[in-house]
Fold these 3 entries.
Entry 1:
Amino acid sequence: MLYTLYMLEAKGLTKRYGDVIALESVDFQINEGITGLLGPNGAGKSTTIKLFLGLIEPTSGSAEVIGQKPYESVESRARLGYMPEHDCLPASVTAAEFLTHMAQVSGIPPTYARTRAADTLRHVGLDEERYRSIGEYSTGMKQRVKLAQALVHDPVLVLLDEPTAGLDPGGREDMLALIKRTGQEFGISILLSSHLMGDVESICDRIIVLEEGHVTEEGEVSQFTQETQTLYIEVDDHLEELVEALSKRGITATVDGLSVVVQKESEEQYDAIRDAIVEADARLRRLAPRRHGLTDIFRRAPNE
Amino acid sequence: MSEAQGEVFDLGYHHYEGPREGRMRARKAIWINGVRTALGIGRGWGSKAIPVLLFIATMTPAVVLSIIAATLGATEDFPSHDDYYQIISTLLIIFSAIIAPELLCPDRRDGVISLYLVRPLSTTDYVAGRWAAFLTVTLALVYLGQVVLFIGFVLAADEIWDYLRDNWLDVPRFLLAGLVVAIFTTTIPLAVSAFTTRRAYAAAFVIGLFIISIPVSAILSLCEDDQGQRRSEFAAGEQEPCRPATGEAAKWFALINLGAVPIHVSDLIFPEENNSEFAQLVAELPHIVPVGWYLLLTAGPGFVLWWQYKRISI
């Protein structure tokens, strides 16, 4: 009998802290690529990560990493990387020394560890700064060191917990680009836990949505960002006239800010909309179907 | 004139294909890093200053005694290898109290512990690695002093070979007694450090604990003579014997002096009699008592250290 080996697999995964249920009968599989673990605070994301890192044991069910349970065998963590959300860096040592040490703690011999530390720091863009004490680094540089320590032992899978926390917009873009490159070009699978939908939407291939300890949505990101049947007609002026012109043609429309919103019923509607715009003498800026965003996931009722 | 030429190489990301040594390498890394941290190796001069000063302070008695022995000769009253541990015990406690928290507190304060425990390393591996690292440093310290002292005694001897033949047993004795002293001074400060992220708090608590135990033990186990000096009834000598207020229980209360606990066990290893008042009181007890007390005060804090880390939530 053949079994499929997943990067991560949760089978009936349940975790209770006394009377509090953090996760209940959660089932999912994660394959290669970049997967987003999305959910509001308290949804069970951190508990899920801790279970896969082997820091806590499930109340029932199992959390497996490439077929092994990390809470039963610490050796299985040798090919896992983890970047926590909170501070985890010593201020008084250099990034080069810290990474060399962390590579050794992951099982890599000292001679190789030094080379790996240099290579990984170059990969995250800290080649020139590696002999400076970490305490002198900016928040963005510290986030890069945190990512580097998760990659220094060349893991097959990295778990990233809110990797863009505390970064300014520029730093956030850079970090997301780095994570995307790591996941797509270097073949390191990534589980990205975040409550920021923009982060997940921009770099993940798949998402798993957790709410109140349950998986409420799961699938390819593209599946959640498909076009909707709602048309947005963005015009500079004459909004009311446009609504009236559409109404004359049997199309119900509403005003939303600087746009007129129409429910698309057929392709022929586009001709009627064009004629209505001409009749209303409105200057058209944009006409496009609205796409679903990941934000919509949380607008829906659970288990909808 | 030739044109300047250059080539751009994209080094990219390389997957690691070298050896992976798993948990054993991880344990070794924690141990080596602990030794380096204790000695301030790989850090600024500020981090090195305290261990170096304490190291010098702890080694000074051995060097001074060796020089005196080598130049003036060692008389019968000259401090022995057993006495050396008693001489340095206070310095050793100060050294341990200040340096030991350096191995544990910053890892928890900075959050590095959360990176260690997601690698092929258990909580027990981490705690054992740090404990072994500090034991290595304290052992080096106590043995180095004893070696210096032994060399001083050898050089002071009229006949070196005769001295070695008659006193070779001192070597295994000071090795064993040194292990006893080092385990004790390693375990208690580390156990205290497991409860705080502030090094200063841990150091102050350990030093305070040891300092307070001396007068408490003295009040309960020694008696006051005519001059108001506290002494043991056994050390009365030519003076009138005096009776401590706690009577027969005085010898048990002598065990409260924490700094002397490993010395009582060391006294059982060396044949020479220890003339300190606490030691004379404890010598009245069955040998199993100081040994059992020592084991309780090392195994107990050792367990507390391990248990505290088992409870750590990341």
Entry 2:
Amino acid sequence: MPPILECNQLSKYYGSKMALANVSFTIEPGRIVGLLGPNGSGKSTFIKIANGLLTPSQGSVTICQNPIGPESKACISYLPDTSYLNNWMKVSALIDMFNDFYPDFDRNKAYEMLARLGISEHDKLKTMSKGTKEKVQLILVMSRNAALYLLDEPIGGVDPAARDYILDTILTNYNENGAVLITTHLISDIESILNDVLFLRQGQLVLSAAANEIREQNGKSIDELFREVFRC
Amino acid sequence: MLAKVLKYDLKATGRLLVPAYLVFIVISVVNKICLEIGLRNEYESVSVQLAQGLTFLLYFLTVFVIGILTTVFVVMYFYKSMAGDQGYLTHTLPTQTEVLIISKIICSLIWQLVVTLLISSSVFFMLFGHIGEIYTSLGDIFGFTWQKMLSSLDFDINIYSILLVTASAVSAIMSSVTYLACIAFGNLSNKHKVMSAIFSYVGFYIGLRVFRLIIDIIYETTKSGIESSVAAEMLNGKLIFDIMVNIVITVVLYLLTVDIFKKRLNLE
């Protein structure tokens, strides 16, 4: 099967400041990939380029063999690291909206996940806590049967119990014929679910390997290796 | 997809504008009642006159506020949904950038049309029952009848009216495209995106005013000393020229807006 994501010699500059430099990798179907690196390493920049929210300075990204555009966007289910939904909307209205725009959205799955968390579909986002809002966003994103899930810091800023819920939601709901790319710097929390690992440092890809391979070759966990590679 | 995007654009903007328009309708009705009571106030009660004055002042202010509110709210929505946090959703929808922009333009035009009809209907409602008196009074003041005034004009009022309506429609489209273009220009800046958008608008507005002033000066200079019928034709010609200029500006700004949001989007 062809790769779901192909990143080829990708570079991004903000003025004279380099955010990504000649980054190349592929993501195969059925893989959960961790894009790991400290703050400012270029993780979110890459995710935004893949979603068409930023334009690369050089190189290209293709998703499901499509360049960035409406076809690639239809393949991606994207969770940004910010609150991006209309605060005044009710959860039910958000579900209707996702159902309208994305043919692969499963509204029954969304309602099941909401019921499990005890979130009322009649509540407006603005009445919810930050953590609950993040859960609603995750539910909407994971209710799609997408080819590629791009999750930007899904466990950043939430308590450990919520992290477990988020990871469990990702694992039990993603399309197994698709792929998941998760960015984070909280390695120990997600290490157990990763198939592949990409280390980004100052915009450069310094490591790209299977998670098991890294553990076997280095004799240490990915979290330990991360701390070693990115020691200040 | 355009219908779906437009549906959510109208929902997002209508949630504030519809209640504001309902308040305006209520104020119009209250003002009309006070106006009628005041006109029939045979005893010239001070309290009735005071209430009438206050409601008229409130109505007068609301006419301005409702127009400004529509523009401000629509522009704020444009910014939030295209260049703010909600842009993360807008620009990841599986649709063409052109669809997103055209939907915003249609949404803005719908609200501009609604507010124009609302204000016009409200003014007509205020005058309802007194149009004959106003017609006669104006004739008495200026010493003419409307028929005489219209017949004294050297140009075809129908053609001029059609041109005026066309000019208004083009101008409404141009203003919507201009707001979006300025937001797009602001998006090109790495910092101070809002300020950059505002400065773009001010710069564009001043540039357009200067251009119009030059055209007006050329027109006024050329028409002096020529026959009034020729001057009237020139007036139509000037209006056609204005419409053409606005169409060209609108098309150029639209293409630039599409290009920026498609190829230079910068949602840092």
Entry 3:
Amino acid sequence: MKHLALVFWFVCAVCELGTVSRAYGHGFAGARFFQATLSTDDPFVSDELSLPTISTIRTPDDGGTRETDISVDIAKRITPQFGIEIGETFTALNPHEGRSTNGFDNLELGGKYQLLKNGPHEAIVSLGLDVEVGGTGSSSVGADSFSTWTPGIFFGKGFGDLPDALRFFKPLALTGVAGVGIPTSASSRSVTVNEETGEREVDIERHPDVLEWGFALEYSVIYLQSQVKNMNLPAPIDRLIPLVEFALETPLNRCAGGETTGTINPGVIWAGQYFQVGVEAIIPINERTGNNVGVIAQLHFFLDDIFPHSVGRSLFGGTK
Amino acid sequence: MKSRLLVLLLIVLAGVARIEAHAFLKDAKPAVGSTVQTSPNEVQIRFTETIEPAVSSIRVFDASGKEVDKRDVHLDRWDHALLHVSLPRLQAGTYKVMWRVVSVDTHMTNGNFTFRVGR
């Protein structure tokens, strides 16, 4: 892993000595800069690196289990409108009783196509497909042996086109995602032996299709200062984006229909020129999700700004 | 281990030494959303990055949508992140400034804001 990081930065630095061509940035729709959100995927096709994203929360599993995830995600534009993503998560599980365990979750791959972008209305719509590759992670941390395909639609809308009478609402923006997670296996069978009777017991776990949906409502102080009214706010307040994210899942079939779980995540992001940092609370929406508040934090790099002439530009069609 | 970290740091710094980014509005005169008592001679916008003047613009419109600036956008002689555009004597009213800039690394950004001349 250390070698990979070294090679990555080396390639980036060397490539910076290369050519100059026109590049378009990520996260912009007209005058609106959309920062990357922590808990729900944003609609932009971009060159980004989230390293790391760390979250921890006590889940209701096994009488209460502290789950800590450390993940890395990288997104790369192939063309200005199409990009790919790859992500991996290391999970540590510490149950209230019993032995702790840790390991890698399944590899996650994704592709996203930017369908439309409207500058004056600060709007964007994208289509995407994510794949959790079954069997690539450790079953000890719950990684599935089967894959899950999740086609989805992503959107973003800034409110900069509101009338001037509502100018202090212009820094508001909404991003969101809706997709259906479709497992490649409808159910799993596991066989255990009853210690008292010695009989074999077959346990069938059903894997429903799941509607994965979420949205983020954010208020950009950057937008307020540069587009609406300069309030002379000092650093670092002048680059804050308070936000609240809703990350939700609703099973659709196989005896689990309608049992929505999810979290409400209020927090704040500080966005600089080359990176952003964000932190959010993770608040379960119901008892099915859990009873304890967790936290998620992320350091996120804008590769197109750090390496505009190499890994930060699309591989093809960069002059478009 | 220490030598590897040092090499990594040097490589990162080599990249960071060249980094350029999207140009954000840093400050403006007249200030964003402000009211000025007398007609300003020009609009100045300072950006967070050095600007490519040939493909950058600042346009100022009155309330009826008519462009009122003198169409002479130019880079500041000493500060290459500062753009100017001259204005005629403005009547009292609200004016909209629309800017579009390309930073020297070719990233394009745009934005707009209003200021008011009140007498």
